[in-house]
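Message: I would value a second opinion on how I read folds in token form. Give me a protein, with the fold worked out from its sequence. Write it directly below this note and I will take it from there.
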Amino acid sequence: MNYKEIAKETIGNLYKAHNSIRKSGIDEKLIALVELRVSQINGCAYCCSYHAKELSDFGFEQDMINRLPGWKHTNAFNNQQKLVLEWAEAIIYSKDDWQNIKSKLIEQFTEREIVELTASITLMNTLNKLRITLAEKD
């Protein structure tokens, strides 16, 4: 189903929001990292491929991209990257300890960055679900 064409304005607005997040001033590499992780959790093959290439284009080594599913068990990621990955998983999995993670975010990010990061995570979750359920398999 060509959902992007069928609901052109609605889906277009979702992508406009995505572009707005990317221009918001938060580190695009962090956004791409959480978008890949969210896509991995949801199992969106297209989005995983897209964001893995994007991270590679940003200079992430392939070994680091390969380690992303096991980010908790490696020193390949710095503390800030681990924090945003922890936040992404807390949101996607609806974890009860999100308040603790949010407290850590407040120490390292501005309120605007936290909002943009959270919007990115929830929007990517939505875009993944749309692609998985409505698009043709690639």
Q: What stands out?
A: Helices lie at 3-6, 8-22, 28-42, 45-57, 62-67, 79-92, 98-108, 111-134. The chain has eight helices and no strands.
